[in-house]
Write a structure and sequence with these properties.
ABC transporter transmembrane region fold, membrane, binds adenosine-5'-triphosphate, transmembrane helix, six-stranded mixed β-sheet, Rossmann fold
């Protein structure tokens, strides 16, 4: 498995990235994410047609020319046949050429026609090849663009709306829906108008050659329309159900992979196996229904031209029409061309129903609110030009000054929906710059949520979080900047200066070196010097572990860090914060999996060493030993502040919740 993973992410493949990018960029007219999100929310289907309209027009032009060329060659072939018969009364052209013609002239004429047919066929084939090339580009580019926008939407989606989607749903959207939509647009969209146009042309030719008898053929062909509509309706129902079943299976597989260890230890293997078996089976049965429908429709359409030509023959016999070889040949050939045009109809209908379902499902995901949409209008600050310049510099990491930040939380309350209770109530607190705040309290008291509100990740239901940034850049008259966290600019500013260590470490399947700066390393090219990475490894007390690894910093740590212990993952996550050297550090209980000795070193490095020096640190913790290192402690219980103050003040008060909490823990320790 590991070998397979290594093969699939061979980094030398990245050398081909510029080539792929250049190819995909040919005629790329996609706007930026904000503009495209607006269009995608109305209809992904229409948005993609809008962005690829030049390619579609090009394909239409090529395809229709290809069809006209094929028809001209058919027309020439019929003329060829008639030149041998010399009996035609239908065609003035033939009369013109053959009336008094000698055998030699007929020979020259037929040879010329044969050459023309050959050239037309070559032309049609080369046009067709060009169309296939563009089709292939679109079949890759459309899912690729959809995947990019899904990724950006996921990055921005509001926390409240994100909870509606499971990993399986999103995987299915990116994997299947994007592909279905791309498939239809690339391979079928243009073919439908071409099909109509070419059918019209063939029909004109049939009337010209076969007269009123051709209408019998048209009537038989027209029977395909209600049949196709019927199959499309069934396809839509079957396909919607198929995608739902796909979501379910992918959800199960994700859960299964994530919980593999527990599934094994608890002996739940059989249960999961049955669940996945049932989900796959139900998807398979649905696929069978779809395939059956498709085969039936395809077989019917594929052979329909025979019914059409039989109908025309019957008409010729019934109306005693022209039974010459060229007329019969024209009836067969033109019916087969008409049949060819409508052969892909069931496929179109199938792909169309898949694309409509995919577009509807994608639209639902795009209409999910993004974070910025939760910000209230009046919260947006009006910055003057100088402030805007400074903001721009901070965001792009170009300000020549150390930055520090303070917070002011005013009556923060939070609930996830109107039907749910508040999980945070009226939180008001001042957090001075360059100081440390510890947030403690029982489980589920709201510590992580408060941190996420301060980080700008969740918008509170009521209340504001104001920040003030301090800097000292000689180029500017001002040396501080204030604003609201929950604005686009506030969020961008915070993200430029903060680092965050979550409860559960996020590890990418790569080497330790790549995991710390979290930037992908191109072959033979290092983004960041090893020294900076090594220093952060020392700060996070990971160096002794590193010595144990045979490949040092280049050790691959497997998917989600499977080759590491919980404490090792936490320390990799911590070393990222040290590496970032950010002015604002959020630590959400990151020491829960480390031993007492490592905890001591880490607490010392963070709160007493260079790592946290002059930084504003917000630390949520259940470990009370090192609270003495912090400047302020906030005690949360049931989403409300029950206590706030310095360690000394709270410790001196015998009745403080902190003391009760500590003695409660000691009591618990004694009993155990
Ligand atoms: N997305 C969500 N939707 C609904 N409720 C949520 C959501 N996220 C958290 N909660 C609820 O908010 C409450 C506080 O959660 P939070 O994660 O902040 O607790 P905590 O104090 O950090 O807990 P712990 O000490 O266990 O980490 C919990 O009751 C939790 O169920």
């Amino acid at each position: 498995m590991k070998k397979l993973a290594k093969l699939s992410i061979d980094k030398s493949d990245l050398n081909s990235v510029p080539f792929i990018n250049n190819t995909l960029a040919k005629g790329d007219d996609y706007p930026d994410f904000d503009t495209s999100l607006h269009d995608l929310r109305k209809s992904p289907f229409q948005a993609l047609i809008k962005y690829e309209r030049k390619q579609f027009s090009f394909m239409f032009f090529i395809h229709i020319t290809d069809v006209i060329t094929s028809l001209l060659s058919a027309f020439a072939a019929i003329q060829l046949l008639r030149s041998f018969e010399k009996t035609s009364t239908n065609f003035k052209l033939i009369d013109l050429f053959y009336h008094e013609s000698t055998p030699n002239q007929i020979l020259i004429f037929t040879v010329c026609l044969a050459v023309i047919i050959f050239i037309l066929k070559i032309l049609a084939a080369s046009l067709h090849a060009q169309k296939i090339e563009t089709e292939m580009l679109l079949a890759w580019r459309i899912p690729f663009k959809l995947m990019q926008s899904l990724y950006l939407q996921l990055l921005k989606i509001s926390k409240k709306d994100r909870t509606q989607y499971q990993t399986g749903d999103i995987t299915n959207l990116a994997q299947n829906d994007a592909k279905f939509l791309g498939n239809f647009l690339a391979h079928a969209l243009v073919d439908i108008p071409v099909l109509l146009a070419s059918c019209a042309l063939v029909m004109i030719l049939m009337i010209a050659m076969l007269g009123k008898i051709a209408w019998i053929g048209f009537f038989i062909i027209a029977l395909q329309i209600p049949l196709s509509l019927f199959f499309s309706w069934i396809g839509n129902i079957l396909h919607t159900e198929m995608m739902k079943r796909g979501d379910k299976r992918l959800q199960l597989i994700t859960e299964w992979i994530q919980g593999m260890r527990l599934v094994r230890y608890f002996g739940w293997g059989k249960y999961f196996k049955n669940e996945i078996h049932e989900a796959t089976l139900s998807e398979f049965l649905q696929d069978l229904k779809i395939t059956f429908k498709y085969c039936f429709a395809f077989a019917l359409t594929l052979n329909w031209w025979m019914v059409v030509s039989s109908g025309i023959f019957a008409g010729i016999v019934f109306y005693n029409g022209d039974r010459s070889a060229s007329t019969l040949f024209a009836a067969i050939w033109l019916s087969s061309i008409l049949g060819q045009q409508i052969t892909p109809l069931p496929w179109f209908v199938n792909a169309w129903s898949q694309a409509i379902v995919a577009s509807r499902r994608l639209k639902l995901f795009y209409v999910a609110r993004i974070q910025e949409e939760e910000f209230l209008e009046e919260k947006n600050n009006n910055y003057n030009p100088e402030e805007k310049e400074i903001i721009d510099k901070i965001i792009h990491n170009k300000l020549n000054s150390e930055i520090s930040i303070s917070f002011s939380l005013n009556n923060i309350s939070l609930r996830f929906s109107k039907s749910e209770p508040y999980v945070l109530n009226n939180i008001s607190v001042e957090i001075p710059a360059k100081k440390t705040l510890a947030i403690i309290g029982p489980v589920a008291s709201g510590k992580s949520l408060l941190i996420q509100i301060m980080m700008g990740d969740i918008t509170p239901t009521h209340g504001d979080v104001h920040f003030k940034l301090y800097f000292n850049d000689k180029n500017y008259k001002i040396n501080s900047l204030s604003g609201n966290v929950h604005t686009s600019l506030g969020l961008a500013l915070l993200r430029a200066i903060q680092s965050y260590v979550p409860q559960e470490a996020f590890i990418i399947s790569s080497s330790i070196r790549e995991n710390i700066p979290l930037k992908y390393k191109y072959q033979n090219e290092y983004y960041d010097s090893d020294n900076a990475i090594m220093n952060s490894i020392y700060a996070a007390s990971f160096h002794t572990d590193l010595n144990e690894f045979s490949h040092g910093m280049d050790t691959e740590i497997g998917e989600r860090g499977v080759n590491l212990s919980g404490g090792q993952k936490q320390r990799i996550s911590l070393s990222r914060s040290s590496f970032a050297n950010s002015s604002l550090i959020f630590l959400d209980d990151p020491l829960s999996a480390v031993d007492v000795k490592t905890e001591k070193t880490l607490a010392h490095n963070i709160f007493r060493g260079d790592w946290g020096k002059g930084k504003t640190i917000i630390w949520s913790t259940h470990r009370l030993e090192y609270l003495k290192y912090t400047d302020n402690i906030l005690f949360l219980d049931g989403g409300s502040i029950t206590e706030f103050g310095s360690f000394e003040t709270l410790k001196a008060n015998n009745k403080s919740r902190l003391n009760q909490f500590i003695s409660g823990l000691n009591e618990h320790d004694r009993k155990n």
